Amino acid sequence: MTDRNIENEQYDAPIIIHQNQLGLGMGIQLLPALLDLKNRIKNRIIICTYKNQAEIFEPFFGRENLYFFKEKKLKEGEFVTDPIFDDRRELVFNYGVSDTIHQPYTCHAVDYYFRLLHPYYADIAIPMEKKNYPKLPETDISKFDIPENAIAIGITSTKPSCQITPNIYEFIENYLIKNNYT
Questions:
Q1: CA–CA distance from 167 to each of 40, 75, 171 (Å)?
Q2: Residue numbers in the chain where pLDDT is lower than 50
Q3: What does the pLDDT read at residue 1?
Q4: Between the chain's N and C termini, which has fewer beta carbons within 10 Å?
């Protein structure tokens, strides 16, 4: 039987996580599994991602462990960063967390990331307390003149299944107006 305890054998090689999904939601959903991994091992974790994800990962992994995509190779369709290590023979573990082995939505992204990064969760339930999202640093919004009863709704998404249809926006807007929200 395979030993599920990753603490039994560890390598000092850095772990490079390629998070090439543009949506902020996927970066946030990656955090519980990544932080659990960070707490279990001593390896350096390096995250290759888009600059818009910096606010999500930097508080937990530091700016020095973030490498941002700078271009897309036209032939291969891959995103590239500056070279992370000068010596190509450097032992590293690469994980492409955006390349799914499951059909989309056969499991929640948090569960998928745990199973991808933690093989001992392959066939057992992931404890609910591990799936909690970490508290992100609060943003200072005092520079904005926002009424106390204001509500903000984000109108963007990166996939059709998450887009709010116009009739739902109208329903929400009518509800807010009826209840004196601005």
A1: 47, 41, 6
A2: 1-2
A3: 44
A4: N
Answer left, alpha or beta for residue 105, where phi above 0 means left and psi between -120 and 50 means alpha.
Answer: left
User: Which tokens belong to 86?
Assistant: 């000068």
For helices 24-40 and 109-117, give the axis angle rounded to 10 degrees: 30
Q: How far apart are CA 99 and CA 50, in angstroms?
A: 16
Q: To 10 degrees, what angle do helices 54-61 and 24-40 make?
A: 10
Does this model's pTM top 0.70?
no
Q: Which of 94, 95, 127 is closest to 111 using CA atoms?
A: 127
Cα 26 from Cα 19, distance rounded (Å): 9
